[in-house]
Amino acid sequence: MKWTSVDLQKYEQAKEYVDTVVVPLAPFQIGALDASAKQADQYDVLMLLSRELEKELMGRVMLTPMYTYITSAEKSEEAERLNTWTAHFKEQPFEHVLYISFDPAWRKVASQLEGEFIWLPSIPLKDADPAAVKSMVRDQTMQTAELMKSFW
Questions:
Q1: pLDDT tens-digit readout, 100-112
Q2: Contact call for residues 22 and 85 (beta carbons, < 8 A)
Q3: Topology (CATH) of 5-144
Q4: Residue 113 pLDDT grade (very low, low, confident, very high; cuts 50, 70, 90)
Q5: How many beta carbons lie within 10 A of that of residue 135, not counting itself?
Q6: pLDDT tops 80 at residue 135
Q7: Which residues make Cβ contacts (< 8 Å) with residue 120, sequence separation at least 6?
Q8: Fewer CB atoms < 10 Å away: N or C end of the chain?
Q9: Looking at residue 18, what DSSP letter applies?
Q10: 39 and 33 in contact (C-beta within 8 Å)?
Q11: DSSP 3-state assignment of 22?
Q12: Would you list the domain boundaries of the chain?
């Protein structure tokens, strides 16, 4: 289920089965063109991958809106904010809170998170064939879904 009015109504009726919330984490900056463009591409891929995960695990997972943060932000402070999110989700009650990101900087503070963190290797988009990108996203979706199931 996604953060839409239609899916939220479905969630209300099936909340005893939806025990996992997935929060995509995406860095944001405007500055050096190459770095900003790379992050913009990763944002798009993370959005696509998140939606594919939600489809793959429908009925068990709620996908939140993207959590976006400034690249240079102190990750320990961001972890505190995310722990506030985790506390909110646990009150709903979601049993599992999973954070996913291409940003390897989160790995250093993952132990501070009260939810589980899944780091994903980024998918290169530059000059990639759309069919190849679709295939890579699908492969990564299936691998990530299997990893997510291990938390259940």
A1: 999 999 999 999 9
A2: no
A3: Rossmann fold (3.40.50)
A4: very high
A5: 11
A6: yes
A7: 46, 49, 100, 101, 102, 140, 144
A8: C
A9: -
A10: no
A11: strand
A12: 5-144
How far is it, in rounded angstroms, from Cα 99 to Cα 108? 14
The length of the chain, given as a count of residues: 152
Query: What would the two tokens of residue 127 be?
Result: 């000059």
- In one letter, which amino acid is 46? L
The two structure tokens encoding residue 25: 């984490």
Q: What are phi and psi of 8, to 5 degrees?
A: -65, -35
- The burial class, CB within 10 Å (0-12 / 13-18 / 19+), for 136 is middle
Least Cα distance to 51 among 69, 67, 65 occurs for 65
SS3 128: coil
- Structural contact between residues 55 and 131, judged by C-beta atoms closer than 8 angstroms: no
List, in order, residues 6 or more apart from 62 with CB less than 8 Å away: 1, 2, 3, 7, 11, 18, 20, 21, 22, 94
Beta-bridge partner residues of 68: 26
Quote the pTM value: 0.89
Question: Dihedrals φ, ψ of 116, to 5°?
Answer: -90, 140
